[in-house]
Structures are given as structure tokens and as C-alpha cells.
């Protein structure tokens, strides 16, 4: 089940993730202040994330005492029944045609908290009938995780599949400063993590990058390596294959997924 959580995060549709991040542009711009680019060139980018102020709040749910992690700018990564762990979600521009991989990461400022039972992510359950029907939060623990001593999430840093944001190829890098061992009720908190992402293979370029007046601010707010990524941007959107109009609806088929 723990590995299932990692797969569920990695399998999120890139285009949907991009749309969510674009809609939250202001918050993302603020979150970028917690990130610092250490070095970058055609073959890699190294960046550091720093955990801002966080709290571990005690909550009582259904007669059970839990701890809830609170940290601004981080993203929930777990499914219902799994420990409610948060992570940084860093959006990177990547070279067209290159393979993207996690090369290494290092940690500093590690604190271990004992006797912590992290609250599970709630599932919604319909209650009542008719006009009195409502959705209730049910905090059931996934026993395959809470009864295990293995760390959750299983990876502290991972990279999602490649997506496209208009003319820019992108990936998301998840960095979790919180690693939880449910069977031991132990929470390890890392205040600073430095990550190196490598780019391998033939990098495609198409001359001078396009300037999109209405989109440049979005690129800049969302992408950690906005300046680096401009040189890898395609000059035009993927071509349309064909379109049909029926019943006042337009159906468009395209060659690549993404947001155009």
C-alpha cells in the first residue's frame, strides 16, 4: 500500500497538475521563496528547498489522539487512510528530447520526533437522507501502513512523468521534508534538502525562444528555473491533426498531451 501511494502521486496527469499550478500562481510565486537554485547548466539543475515554520498539532478524532502536520506552501501527497504527509512540489522546465532523472540529494537539519501518530487522510462518506444528506469525514487508518515500520513515503525525493505547459516541457519534483514510520510512531523532519536533477541525451532546440506576453508571467511564477527553461522552449505549439464540428461542439485531436 505504501508503494501504491508513490505510484498514485507519480501517475497524476501532468496537464491537470499544470492547470492547478497555473490557477494558484500567486501562491506558487510566494512558495518559490523557499527554494534556491545552487547551480545549473545544460546537463543539470541543483536546488535547495528549506522548510519554513511548521507545527505538529494535537487533534482528537473519534476518541483517538493524532498529530496533524501544518506547513505553509507544501502539498498533501497521500490518499485516504494514509498518513497525511506534506511535500514540496517543485515545477521545473526541462530540455526537449532529454531524459530527466534524479541524480542525488542531501539533507541537513534533521530532527526526530517520537510518540507521533500522524492523522490519516479522511475519506468522505455520505450520511443522512434527502434534504438532510451530508458528507462526513471518516478517519480510518490503512492498517497495511499504520501497522508497518517502513517509512512513508518510501522515497524522500521523486520526479513525475514529463508534461507540457504550452511551449515548455516540464516535470514536477516532489521533496518531502517529513518521513513517517507509523509502526514506531516516529516522525523525521528535515529542514533543508538539496536536490540535483540531471538531463541526459540529445537536447532539442529551435532557435530563439518565443516571447508570449500573456504567458511569460505564468511561466515565471510557476517554474523554478524560468530563465534556464526559456532556451528549451518550443517555437510553436504541437500541430493539430484534425478537427470536427458536430452539434455545436468542436472536437480537436492533437499529437501531444498538455495545455495549449
List the defining traits of the structure above.
5-stranded antiparallel beta sheet; 6 helices; 260 residues; 16 strands; alpha+beta; disordered N terminus; globular; 43% strand
- Which spans have pLDDT < 50 for at least 5 consecutive residues? 1-30
Question: What percentage of amino acids are in beta strands?
Answer: 35-45%
How many helices?
6
* Secondary-structure class: alpha+beta
Query: Percent helix among the residues?
Result: 10-25%
> In angstroms, what separates the terminal alpha carbons?
35 Å
Cα Rg: 21 Å
- H and E order: HHHEEEEEEEEEHEEEEEHHEE
Protein described:
By secondary structure, this protein is an alpha+beta fold. Helix content is 16%, strand content 43%. It has 6 helices and 16 strands. The strands form 5 sheets. Strands 1, 2, 7, 13 and 14 form a 5-stranded antiparallel β-sheet that branches. Strands 5, 6, 10, 11 and 12 form a 5-stranded antiparallel β-sheet that branches. The longest helix is centred in the first third of the chain and has 10 residues. 29% of the residues are buried. The N terminus is likely disordered.
Amino acid at each position: 500500500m505504501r508503494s501504491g501511494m508513490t505510484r498514485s502521486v507519480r501517475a497524476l496527469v501532468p496537464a491537470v497538475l499544470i492547470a492547478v499550478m497555473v490557477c494558484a500562481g500567486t501562491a506558487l510565486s510566494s512558495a518559490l521563496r523557499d527554494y534556491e537554485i545552487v547551480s545549473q547548466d545544460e546537463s543539470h539543475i541543483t536546488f535547495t528547498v528549506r522548510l519554513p515554520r511548521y507545527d505538529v498539532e494535537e487533534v482528537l478524532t473519534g476518541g483517538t489522539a493524532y498529530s496533524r502536520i501544518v506547513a505553509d506552501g507544501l502539498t498533501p501527497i497521500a490518499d485516504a487512510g494514509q498518513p497525511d504527509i506534506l511535500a514540496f512540489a517543485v515545477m521545473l522546465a526541462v530540455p526537449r528530447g532529454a531524459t530527466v532523472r534524479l541524480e542525488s540529494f542531501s539533507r541537513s537539519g534533521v530532527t526526530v520526533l517520537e510518540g507521533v501518530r500522524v492523522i490519516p487522510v479522511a475519506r468522505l462518506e455520505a450520511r443522512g437522507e434527502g434534504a438532510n444528506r451530508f458528507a462526513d469525514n471518516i478517519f480510518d487508518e490503512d492498517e497495511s501502513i499504520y501497522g508497518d515500520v517502513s517509512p512513508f513515503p518510501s522515497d524522500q525525493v521523486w520526479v513525475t512523468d514529463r508534461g507540457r505547459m504550452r511551449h515548455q516541457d516540464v516535470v514536477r519534483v516532489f521533496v518531502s521534508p517529513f518521513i513517517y514510520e507509523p509502526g514506531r510512531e516516529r516522525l523525521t523532519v528535515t529542514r533543508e534538502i538539496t536536490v540535483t536533477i540531471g538531463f541526459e541525451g540529445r537536447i532539442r532546440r529551435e532557435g530563439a525562444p518565443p516571447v508570449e506576453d500573456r504567458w511569460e508571467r505564468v511561466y515565471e511564477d510557476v517554474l523554478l528555473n524560468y530563465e534556464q527553461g526559456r532556451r528549451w522552449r518550443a517555437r510553436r505549439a504541437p500541430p493539430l491533426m484534425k478537427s470536427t464540428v458536430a452539434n455545436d461542439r468542436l472536437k480537436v485531436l492533437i499529437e501531444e498531451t498538455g495545455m495549449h
